[in-house]
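hey can u check if this looks right to u? its 351 residues, i copy pasted from the old doc so theres a chance i mangled smth
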Amino acid sequence: MYSSLATIAIPGSKETRDFSVLNGQNDVAFGPGFSYLEHVANLSQSIGNTTMCGRFATIGQCQGDKTHKIGKILVCGREWCPVCGQRKSDAHKRRYGRMMPKAQQMRSIGIFTLTWPVDERKTLRTKTELYSTRKKAVKVLKSFDYKRGISRWHWYGDAICHCGMKGKEWADKRERKAGIICPIHGKIEFTQLKNEYHPHLNIIVDAGKLSLEMLEKIKNKLRKATGAGVIHYGFASNPGKILHRIRYITRSTFRAAAWDTEMAKTLQGFRNLAYWGIHGEWDRQPVWSLADLPKEDKKELEGMVDIFAGRCPMCKEDIIWGNLIVDGLKIKNELIEPLDAGYFMIILPRV
């Protein structure tokens, strides 16, 4: 279907560029026998193989206007990838961008964060136990008439200095070997940070401020069902704060595979971000729009939400993604009109 896209016209120019299909047979850039699936996408057993992240792209076709094509840079999405693991990386933006259509259906969100005592964390080291624990927590919340929700695990907490201080600006730099800044002590060494496996489950539901009595009932039932220890609860009803919470929950916390290589291998293929709700619960109309967000956030998301909803950002018609794999560096270097989160608008001249 998409073989004709191997040669694409550059907008604003009479030139064309050859985007060779990487079909494993005859690719000049990567050598005979190169296969994207074999050499890149299927290397799930190699947790440290992130060197090809962002090197390739795929093409989507707008069904309304055939001159509208969308390029998508392919990323590995691993939390410990030096690129994908960064806050507001393409992978991070795609995680919270895909949540936006659902978040916009929620006037207020409540967030339960379940944590476990140190001695109990060793039981949360298999996919089976992680899925089972999440299922038990969701069942409890359903019993309190929460009909839909979103959940995601965090594997580590924020970076902590030996003094116990932690901060937003320096917490995401803990994978570096030195040069981390503590708000109190200034520069500290990597060895002074606590990188201990600390799984905690974040669950978002339609809720706001809860009475202390109701909150304790929910927490007690969650503890009994999952074995959790401390359970935190918070809520947000302002669109900007809702977005902030979603960004926080979707960020990477397992920033270096070396922290726990055994667990990193276990998590390969694990479906971390999960939605739950009976049929039709996520088909409601939005209760707030991007216009309700701060200007900077609105600008960032405007080019993303349509694509994540499967629509062309120009004419709002459906996008059909093909299986053509092209050289992502050529798209980055040659094609104009970048959107965000690793997406690019390709507008072909009309003939």
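The first helix runs from residue 36 to 41.
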